[in-house]
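Schema walk-through. Below, the input block comes first and the output block second. Nothing else is stored per chain. Lengths vary across the set, and this one has 374 residues.
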Amino acid sequence: MTRRLALFLALLVFQLSAWAHKASDSYLVVDVKGKEVTAQWDIALRDIDFALGLDGDGNAEITWGELRTRQSDITAWALSRLAITRGGVCTSESTGLQVDDHTDGGYAVLHLRAVCPPAAGALGLQYRLLFDLDQLHRGLLRLTLDGATYTTVLAPTTGLVQFGATQASRWTQFTQYLVEGVWHIWIGFDHILFLLSLLLPAVLVFQERRWQGVPSFAQASREVLWVVTSFTAAHSITLSLAALGLVSLPSRLVESAIALSVVLAAANNLWPVVEHRRWLVAFGFGLIHGFGFASVLGELGLPADALVLSLLGFNAGVEVGQMAIVAGFLPVAFLLRNTRLYVRDVFGLGSWLTMLVALVWLLERAFDLKLVSG
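--- output ---
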């Protein structure tokens, strides 16, 4: 049983090490005035390479020459996955290609122009970039339609989206980003492993030089409340500061520090240094995790009023996602707290494997390596 569990956890952690990078996003900014449409579409070079194979020499670097050589292929691929209608089908074309750096690497910047039939009223947009290859991909849209601003997140289930000639409902905007906040915490495997590393000992107490089950569910719940509240408070602070553009840190530094936080949280389970105030660890490293959450909003460059509302919804979604994880974890962990399965395998072996995979992340992110293929 133990060997099978160890093999399962090892395979799971190996897969997590391949997945634990920033989720795939593109940034689409569209301005519509009557029948004239202009747009800027930022698509990650790694995503284009994944879809079209840009890296001709196989050196894991995309050069401007490689990008320019495939410009017509890139344009045709992108335009085939974006449809705009207003009074009929709008005819789209590319007007230029540039390269820009975002917090998570290089992006191709496509400049687009479209002409719609002479009509006013609602505009339809259907986005399908990468959905056939990556169901986790999202398109972050900012649309200005005859002076009214809309923001939304485009997912595989979104389909054709209709935008009217008036400002989008604030409640609709809030709920869209709330859902995306839940989604981003659930696919943020490094954030989840950090949180779980702090929650694993919540049903245990370190006495007589060994871990033992806590006597009551209330005691375990208080420990979890302190940890989750501290983590929430901390990442809410830095998520807000970063998304509002008040503080900015290099992406490699943030992602490396997040990996380090997982290493240290798991190591503390194996060699306890902080035994009774893990909420301090949660708060300290939660400040770093907030910068990681912020990239999905900050990169889009939303207007101030839309950004605040999107920020509130996204942050609320992250908390809902966290609480769902806690609600599923805590009762089961408490029931198993005094068993060999939990203490030795889930807690002990799980902490070891978490620490090892986080070390892989740390080396990859700090030194720009690719140790595990994804």
